[in-house]
Write a structure and sequence with these properties.
The protein has about 280 residues and is α/β, with parallel strands linked by helices. The protein is built from eleven helices and ten strands. About 40% of the residues lie in helices and about 15% in strands. The strands form two sheets. A five-stranded parallel β-sheet has the order 3-2-4-1-5, sandwiched between helices. It has a five-stranded mixed β-sheet with strand order 6-7-10-8-9, covered by helices on one side.
């Protein structure tokens, strides 16, 4: 009889956030598959857990997943953890979980801390859904292109590294306007935690107000946008297709003729896409 793959949420900063059930699962697991064994051992040491660990990270996930599946088929119980938070949320683990399902192995979640859920709960944006976009591309042009798809009628949650957060906030303001609200959640659950809600036009000044604000881990919650009429969505798809073959002015002219939307509006969008 095969073992169980436990997907365990672990603290995102404050080690006291580990649940009693998570600790018990880690204590009883035959093997703990870790994004970084050194990081996980800090948590294990706090609770006197000395069970065997193995590395499963983005660079070895395919090979490591095969080893874990072999252990599970032998009847071993395996706990999967990431460095912080819940595996599968911008962290390794999804490939292993998928393969376990396909192999008919039981997968059991052990819910725990998650930066996206924590940031959303502290944002105060009333909504019955949100979109988790995680980390966007690091390259400026690719990032701006990705932002075009995030004009949505619900909040959007992003993760960002400290050395890129200023650029990200500038791109958000340029794309969605300075009046759109955002919540910047920095170093969640840690000693220097900050959760601040403001307009995008105020975000750069907030970052510059204290040197330490350009350090740490960031979760950003962008307020919901206005629903886009179907005609606008169709026009933007048409414009994108035309821009692959012609200059912005000509693409805007033809898109306006095809869709009936104002040429000036489409030309402005074409220029934004060409940046």
């Amino acid at each position: 009889m095969s073992g169980i793959l436990f997907v365990v949420g672990t603290p995102i900063g404050n080690l006291a956030d580990a649940s009693a059930r998570a600790i018990e699962v880690l204590r009883q697991a035959d093997v703990i598959a870790c994004e970084d064994t050194r990081t996980t051992r800090t948590l294990l040491a706090r609770h006197g857990i000395a069970g065997p660990t193995m590395a499963l990270h983005q660079h070895n996930e395919a090979a490591a997943a095969k080893k874990v599946l072999d252990l599970l088929r032998q009847g071993k119980n395996v706990a999967l953890v990431s460095d912080a938070g819940t595996p599968g949320f911008s962290d390794p683990g999804a490939l292993l979980v998928e393969q376990a399902h396909r192999a008919g192995i039981r997968v059991s979640p052990v819910p725990g801390p998650n930066a996206a859920a924590a940031a959303f709960s502290a944002a105060g944006f009333a909504a019955d859904r949100f979109v988790f976009a995680g980390f966007l591309p690091a390259a400026p042009a690719a990032r701006r292109k990705a932002l075009e798809a995030l004009e949505l009628p619900c909040p959007v949650i992003l993760y960002e590294a400290p050395h890129r957060v200023a650029e990200m906030l500038a791109d958000l303001a340029a794309r969605f306007g300075p009046e759109r609200e955002i919540v910047i959640a920095r170093e969640l659950t840690k000693k220097f935690e900050e959760v601040a809600r403001m307009k995008l036009g105020e975000a750069q000044a907030w970052l510059r107000a204290a040197p330490q604000r350009l350090q740490g881990e960031f979760a950003l919650v962008l307020a919901a946008g206005e629903p886009r009429p179907a005609a606008h969505a169709d026009a933007e798809r048409t414009l994108d297709a035309l821009l692959e073959a012609m200059a912005p002015s000509e693409a805007a002219r033809l898109a306006a003729k095809i869709t009936g939307l104002p040429r000036r509006l489409l030309y402005r969008k074409a220029l934004e896409r060409a940046k």
